UniProtKB/TrEMBL annotation:
<dbReference type="Pfam" id="PF07686">
    <property type="entry name" value="V-set"/>
</dbReference>
<dbReference type="InterPro" id="IPR036179">
    <property type="entry name" value="Ig-like_dom_sf"/>
</dbReference>
<keyword id="KW-0732">Signal</keyword>
<dbReference type="GO" id="GO:0050852">
    <property type="term" value="P:T cell receptor signaling pathway"/>
</dbReference>
<protein>
    <submittedName>
        <fullName>Butyrophilin-like protein 1 isoform X1</fullName>
    </submittedName>
</protein>
<keyword id="KW-0472">Membrane</keyword>
<dbReference type="InterPro" id="IPR003599">
    <property type="entry name" value="Ig_sub"/>
</dbReference>
<dbReference type="GO" id="GO:0005102">
    <property type="term" value="F:signaling receptor binding"/>
</dbReference>
<dbReference type="InterPro" id="IPR050504">
    <property type="entry name" value="IgSF_BTN/MOG"/>
</dbReference>
<feature type="signal peptide">
    <location>
        <begin position="1"/>
        <end position="20"/>
    </location>
</feature>
<dbReference type="GO" id="GO:0009897">
    <property type="term" value="C:external side of plasma membrane"/>
</dbReference>
<feature type="domain" description="Ig-like">
    <location>
        <begin position="25"/>
        <end position="131"/>
    </location>
</feature>
<feature type="domain" description="Ig-like">
    <location>
        <begin position="138"/>
        <end position="226"/>
    </location>
</feature>
<dbReference type="InterPro" id="IPR013106">
    <property type="entry name" value="Ig_V-set"/>
</dbReference>
<dbReference type="Pfam" id="PF07679">
    <property type="entry name" value="I-set"/>
</dbReference>
<keyword id="KW-0393">Immunoglobulin domain</keyword>
<dbReference type="GO" id="GO:0001817">
    <property type="term" value="P:regulation of cytokine production"/>
</dbReference>
Amino acid sequence: MELLPLVCLCLLTWSGTTFADGNGPGVVTVAVAEGSEAVLPCSLSTRQNIEQKVFDWKKDVKKEVFLYAAGQHYNKGRTGQDEQFKGRVFHFEDELKNGNASIKIHNTKMADSGSYTCTFPNTAEPESHVKLVVGAAPEPSVATLNQTIDWALLQCVVRGASPKPKVEWQDGSGNILPAEEPQVSERGGRYDIILQTTVTKTDRYRCVATQEEINHQVHSDTYVLMNDRREENNSGES
């Protein structure tokens, strides 16, 4: 009846993952972890110098994110930027000569998630559309709640995750284990999930939390050592 004090936390993190999105043609999705940096891509199709041009980034149609006008922008005292983005949005000045109007958002927050558009006013250049997903992916916490000679009750807790993850227990061979109905609660778009399973053999067990919307997965491992009845019986007979 012993649980070895071995817990391995493994993260498959994502940083600035960019992939095609099913919301429509030309829409790019950028997925980042909360608190990291997000790069939203936008460039002139001609790649011509835009140092003396104008480009404008907006969120959800109305929120002013970043406006560049021939060298003038919000980080140089220009007014009009939405409070949400002040001091956190920057462009790639050295890339302007190559037509690159991409921006980077520092210290991303879940509230930054949404639809962004990049436009070049007074040109025939079409809008660029970017969907930003800022996810919170805290690591699972695993524990043994109870253990006998025959079984051990394992618990996995994921707190504050967004978007809602799928949580599973696996054995050392990667097989998904039967588990109790997960306990799920939600507050402010963040999810707390508790999942318990009962195991009956010595093995390494893994709790896996998967967030498919942002192509992210994280897991924690624990090793359970079950006593062997035969060894106990032999010890008692000697």
